[in-house]
Design brief:
alpha/beta; Rossmann fold; six-stranded parallel β-sheet; 16% strand
Length: 293
Protein backbone atom coordinates (compact mmCIF):
# COMPACT_ATOMS: atom_id res chain seq x y z
CA UNK A 1 0.00 0.00 0.00
CA UNK A 2 1.42 3.34 -1.07
CA UNK A 3 2.17 5.98 1.54
CA UNK A 4 -0.03 8.95 2.32
CA UNK A 5 1.61 12.05 0.83
CA UNK A 6 2.08 14.80 3.42
CA UNK A 7 1.26 17.95 1.46
CA UNK A 8 3.47 20.79 2.70
CA UNK A 9 1.75 23.30 0.45
CA UNK A 10 -1.64 22.58 2.04
CA UNK A 11 -0.33 22.62 5.63
CA UNK A 12 1.50 25.89 4.93
CA UNK A 13 -1.67 27.40 3.46
CA UNK A 14 -3.65 26.39 6.55
CA UNK A 15 -1.10 28.02 8.88
CA UNK A 16 -0.93 31.19 6.78
CA UNK A 17 -4.71 31.47 6.97
CA UNK A 18 -4.48 31.24 10.77
CA UNK A 19 -1.71 33.86 10.81
CA UNK A 20 -3.74 36.20 8.61
CA UNK A 21 -6.53 36.09 11.19
CA UNK A 22 -4.05 36.90 13.97
CA UNK A 23 -2.64 39.85 12.01
CA UNK A 24 -6.14 41.18 11.31
CA UNK A 25 -6.89 40.96 15.04
CA UNK A 26 -3.64 42.74 15.99
CA UNK A 27 -4.42 45.58 13.60
CA UNK A 28 -8.04 45.93 14.74
CA UNK A 29 -7.54 45.60 18.49
CA UNK A 30 -4.10 47.12 19.04
CA UNK A 31 -3.40 49.14 15.90
CA UNK A 32 -0.31 47.02 15.44
CA UNK A 33 1.05 45.74 12.11
CA UNK A 34 3.77 43.06 12.37
CA UNK A 35 6.90 44.18 10.54
CA UNK A 36 9.81 42.24 8.99
CA UNK A 37 13.05 43.87 7.88
CA UNK A 38 15.06 41.82 5.37
CA UNK A 39 18.65 42.56 4.38
CA UNK A 40 19.92 41.12 1.10
CA UNK A 41 23.61 41.57 0.28
CA UNK A 42 24.69 40.78 -3.28
CA UNK A 43 22.98 39.11 -6.24
CA UNK A 44 22.93 35.41 -5.33
CA UNK A 45 20.03 34.02 -7.45
CA UNK A 46 18.88 31.54 -4.78
CA UNK A 47 18.91 34.28 -2.13
CA UNK A 48 16.96 36.66 -4.37
CA UNK A 49 14.36 33.95 -5.04
CA UNK A 50 14.03 33.16 -1.35
CA UNK A 51 13.68 36.82 -0.36
CA UNK A 52 11.06 37.34 -3.05
CA UNK A 53 9.11 34.39 -1.65
CA UNK A 54 9.26 35.91 1.83
CA UNK A 55 7.96 39.24 0.55
CA UNK A 56 5.00 37.53 -1.15
CA UNK A 57 4.17 35.59 2.01
CA UNK A 58 4.25 38.78 4.08
CA UNK A 59 1.90 40.48 1.64
CA UNK A 60 -0.49 37.53 1.73
CA UNK A 61 -0.66 37.51 5.54
CA UNK A 62 -0.67 41.28 6.05
CA UNK A 63 2.84 41.71 7.47
CA UNK A 64 4.70 44.93 6.64
CA UNK A 65 7.93 43.91 4.88
CA UNK A 66 10.87 45.94 3.64
CA UNK A 67 13.88 44.50 1.84
CA UNK A 68 17.12 46.47 2.03
CA UNK A 69 19.33 45.53 -0.91
CA UNK A 70 23.07 46.08 -0.58
CA UNK A 71 25.89 45.43 -3.09
CA UNK A 72 28.45 42.60 -2.91
CA UNK A 73 31.05 45.18 -1.96
CA UNK A 74 29.26 46.09 1.29
CA UNK A 75 31.63 46.15 4.26
CA UNK A 76 30.96 44.43 7.56
CA UNK A 77 30.73 47.81 9.29
CA UNK A 78 28.13 49.06 6.82
CA UNK A 79 26.01 45.95 7.29
CA UNK A 80 26.23 46.13 11.08
CA UNK A 81 25.07 49.75 10.92
CA UNK A 82 21.95 48.70 9.00
CA UNK A 83 21.25 45.89 11.47
CA UNK A 84 21.49 48.34 14.36
CA UNK A 85 19.16 50.74 12.58
CA UNK A 86 16.56 47.97 12.25
CA UNK A 87 17.15 46.95 15.89
CA UNK A 88 16.09 50.45 16.92
CA UNK A 89 13.15 50.81 14.53
CA UNK A 90 9.87 49.91 16.31
CA UNK A 91 8.02 49.17 13.07
CA UNK A 92 10.17 46.08 12.56
CA UNK A 93 9.43 43.22 14.96
CA UNK A 94 11.66 40.78 13.09
CA UNK A 95 15.00 41.11 11.31
CA UNK A 96 16.34 38.65 8.77
CA UNK A 97 19.79 38.82 7.18
CA UNK A 98 19.76 36.56 4.13
CA UNK A 99 22.65 34.09 4.05
CA UNK A 100 25.18 33.46 2.66
CA UNK A 101 27.03 36.77 2.98
CA UNK A 102 30.07 37.90 0.94
CA UNK A 103 33.42 36.61 2.22
CA UNK A 104 34.49 39.97 3.67
CA UNK A 105 31.66 39.80 6.21
CA UNK A 106 31.70 37.63 9.36
CA UNK A 107 28.27 35.94 9.40
CA UNK A 108 28.51 35.07 13.10
CA UNK A 109 29.20 38.68 14.05
CA UNK A 110 26.21 39.89 12.02
CA UNK A 111 23.82 37.30 13.46
CA UNK A 112 24.97 38.13 17.00
CA UNK A 113 24.23 41.81 16.31
CA UNK A 114 20.51 41.12 15.82
CA UNK A 115 18.66 41.62 19.10
CA UNK A 116 17.28 38.28 20.34
CA UNK A 117 13.71 39.60 20.47
CA UNK A 118 13.93 40.40 16.73
CA UNK A 119 15.81 37.21 15.77
CA UNK A 120 12.93 35.53 13.90
CA UNK A 121 15.31 33.03 12.24
CA UNK A 122 16.22 31.79 15.75
CA UNK A 123 19.96 31.77 15.05
CA UNK A 124 21.08 33.85 18.04
CA UNK A 125 22.70 31.75 20.82
CA UNK A 126 20.28 33.27 23.33
CA UNK A 127 17.28 31.91 21.41
CA UNK A 128 19.00 28.59 20.71
CA UNK A 129 19.67 28.26 24.45
CA UNK A 130 16.06 29.02 25.37
CA UNK A 131 14.92 26.40 22.89
CA UNK A 132 17.30 23.82 24.39
CA UNK A 133 15.93 24.27 27.92
CA UNK A 134 12.35 24.08 26.66
CA UNK A 135 11.43 27.75 27.05
CA UNK A 136 11.54 29.07 23.46
CA UNK A 137 10.45 32.49 22.33
CA UNK A 138 10.86 31.34 18.73
CA UNK A 139 11.66 28.09 16.98
CA UNK A 140 14.06 27.79 14.03
CA UNK A 141 12.05 27.84 10.83
CA UNK A 142 12.82 24.55 9.07
CA UNK A 143 12.75 22.37 12.23
CA UNK A 144 9.50 24.08 13.29
CA UNK A 145 8.08 23.32 9.85
CA UNK A 146 9.01 19.65 10.23
CA UNK A 147 7.31 19.50 13.64
CA UNK A 148 4.15 21.13 12.28
CA UNK A 149 4.04 18.69 9.36
CA UNK A 150 4.22 15.74 11.75
CA UNK A 151 1.57 17.01 14.15
CA UNK A 152 -0.87 18.31 11.53
CA UNK A 153 -0.64 15.14 9.42
CA UNK A 154 -1.62 12.99 12.40
CA UNK A 155 1.90 11.69 13.04
CA UNK A 156 2.56 13.13 16.48
CA UNK A 157 6.11 12.17 17.51
CA UNK A 158 5.17 11.61 21.17
CA UNK A 159 6.39 8.19 22.30
CA UNK A 160 7.91 7.44 18.89
CA UNK A 161 11.50 6.69 17.97
CA UNK A 162 12.65 9.49 15.67
CA UNK A 163 15.90 9.12 13.75
CA UNK A 164 17.32 12.36 12.38
CA UNK A 165 19.89 12.03 9.60
CA UNK A 166 22.20 15.04 9.83
CA UNK A 167 23.56 17.24 12.61
CA UNK A 168 23.65 20.74 11.11
CA UNK A 169 23.06 23.81 13.26
CA UNK A 170 20.14 24.75 10.99
CA UNK A 171 18.18 21.47 11.02
CA UNK A 172 19.58 18.41 12.80
CA UNK A 173 20.72 19.83 16.14
CA UNK A 174 17.75 22.12 16.82
CA UNK A 175 15.25 19.48 15.69
CA UNK A 176 16.81 16.99 18.09
CA UNK A 177 16.42 19.51 20.94
CA UNK A 178 12.82 20.29 19.97
CA UNK A 179 11.54 16.73 19.60
CA UNK A 180 13.04 15.46 22.86
CA UNK A 181 11.28 18.11 24.98
CA UNK A 182 8.56 17.10 27.41
CA UNK A 183 6.07 19.15 25.44
CA UNK A 184 3.19 18.99 23.00
CA UNK A 185 4.32 17.84 19.55
CA UNK A 186 7.52 16.39 21.01
CA UNK A 187 8.24 13.83 23.77
CA UNK A 188 10.01 11.50 21.34
CA UNK A 189 13.03 9.24 21.73
CA UNK A 190 15.54 10.84 19.37
CA UNK A 191 18.58 9.34 17.68
CA UNK A 192 20.87 11.43 15.47
CA UNK A 193 22.95 9.73 12.79
CA UNK A 194 25.62 11.48 10.74
CA UNK A 195 28.83 11.02 8.75
CA UNK A 196 30.54 9.58 11.83
CA UNK A 197 27.87 6.89 12.35
CA UNK A 198 29.32 3.48 11.48
CA UNK A 199 26.06 1.72 10.58
CA UNK A 200 23.33 4.22 9.77
CA UNK A 201 20.97 1.51 8.51
CA UNK A 202 21.00 -0.19 11.93
CA UNK A 203 19.37 2.87 13.47
CA UNK A 204 17.14 3.76 10.52
CA UNK A 205 15.47 0.34 10.62
CA UNK A 206 14.41 1.01 14.21
CA UNK A 207 12.82 4.36 13.40
CA UNK A 208 9.10 5.06 13.57
CA UNK A 209 9.88 8.44 12.00
CA UNK A 210 12.85 9.25 9.77
CA UNK A 211 13.84 12.87 9.18
CA UNK A 212 16.34 13.15 6.35
CA UNK A 213 18.59 16.23 6.36
CA UNK A 214 21.74 14.84 4.82
CA UNK A 215 22.18 17.15 1.84
CA UNK A 216 22.86 14.40 -0.70
CA UNK A 217 20.43 13.10 -3.35
CA UNK A 218 18.45 9.93 -2.62
CA UNK A 219 21.00 8.38 -0.25
CA UNK A 220 18.37 6.75 1.95
CA UNK A 221 16.99 3.67 0.20
CA UNK A 222 13.91 1.55 0.82
CA UNK A 223 15.87 -1.36 2.32
CA UNK A 224 17.22 1.00 5.01
CA UNK A 225 13.82 1.67 6.63
CA UNK A 226 11.07 -0.49 8.12
CA UNK A 227 7.53 -0.98 6.84
CA UNK A 228 5.11 1.71 7.96
CA UNK A 229 7.76 4.34 8.67
CA UNK A 230 6.90 8.05 8.45
CA UNK A 231 9.45 9.97 6.36
CA UNK A 232 10.06 13.72 6.40
CA UNK A 233 12.53 14.66 3.66
CA UNK A 234 14.25 18.00 4.29
CA UNK A 235 16.73 17.60 1.43
CA UNK A 236 16.60 19.64 -1.77
CA UNK A 237 19.12 18.48 -4.37
CA UNK A 238 19.52 19.21 -8.08
CA UNK A 239 20.12 16.22 -10.32
CA UNK A 240 20.56 16.31 -14.11
CA UNK A 241 17.41 15.68 -16.15
CA UNK A 242 17.56 16.17 -19.93
CA UNK A 243 13.74 16.07 -20.15
CA UNK A 244 13.48 19.34 -18.19
CA UNK A 245 13.87 22.76 -19.76
CA UNK A 246 16.20 23.74 -16.91
CA UNK A 247 18.31 20.61 -17.45
CA UNK A 248 17.75 19.43 -13.88
CA UNK A 249 15.08 18.35 -11.42
CA UNK A 250 14.80 18.54 -7.65
CA UNK A 251 14.96 15.43 -5.48
CA UNK A 252 15.21 14.86 -1.75
CA UNK A 253 17.62 12.90 0.41
CA UNK A 254 15.46 9.76 0.22
CA UNK A 255 14.61 7.48 -2.69
CA UNK A 256 11.02 8.72 -2.83
CA UNK A 257 9.60 6.38 -5.48
CA UNK A 258 10.81 3.25 -3.70
CA UNK A 259 10.19 4.33 -0.11
CA UNK A 260 6.63 5.58 -0.74
CA UNK A 261 5.65 1.96 -1.40
CA UNK A 262 6.91 1.00 2.04
CA UNK A 263 6.22 4.02 4.24
CA UNK A 264 2.88 4.93 5.85
CA UNK A 265 3.43 8.65 5.14
CA UNK A 266 6.07 10.70 3.30
CA UNK A 267 6.77 14.26 2.20
CA UNK A 268 7.50 14.97 -1.47
CA UNK A 269 10.32 17.13 -2.84
CA UNK A 270 9.39 19.73 -3.85
CA UNK A 271 6.15 20.49 -2.01
CA UNK A 272 6.94 19.05 1.42
CA UNK A 273 9.15 20.83 3.94
CA UNK A 274 10.06 23.70 1.59
CA UNK A 275 6.80 25.70 1.83
CA UNK A 276 6.88 25.35 5.61
CA UNK A 277 10.16 27.19 6.19
CA UNK A 278 8.93 30.60 5.03
CA UNK A 279 5.59 30.01 6.78
CA UNK A 280 7.36 29.44 10.10
CA UNK A 281 9.30 32.68 9.56
CA UNK A 282 5.94 34.40 9.21
CA UNK A 283 4.75 32.73 12.42
CA UNK A 284 7.82 33.96 14.33
CA UNK A 285 7.32 37.49 13.02
CA UNK A 286 3.69 37.53 14.15
CA UNK A 287 4.75 36.10 17.53
CA UNK A 288 7.34 38.87 17.90
CA UNK A 289 4.67 41.49 17.22
CA UNK A 290 2.29 39.87 19.71
CA UNK A 291 5.00 40.04 22.39
CA UNK A 292 5.36 43.79 21.76
CA UNK A 293 1.60 44.24 21.72
Amino acid sequence: MAATIIDGNQVAADIRSELKEKVTKLKAEKGLTPGLGVILVGENPASISYVTGKAKACEEIGIHEETIRMPDTTSETELLQIVEKLNNDPKFHGILVQLPLPKQIDEKKVLLAIRPEKDVDCFHPYNVGKMLIGEPDYLPCTPAGVQQLLVRSGNDPSGKHVVICGRSNIVGKPLMAMLMQKAKGANATVTVVHTGTKDMTYYLRQADIVIAAVGAPQVIKADMVKDGVVVIDVGVNRVPDATKKSGFRLVGDVDFDAIKEKASAITPVPGGVGPMTITMLMMNTVTAAEKKG
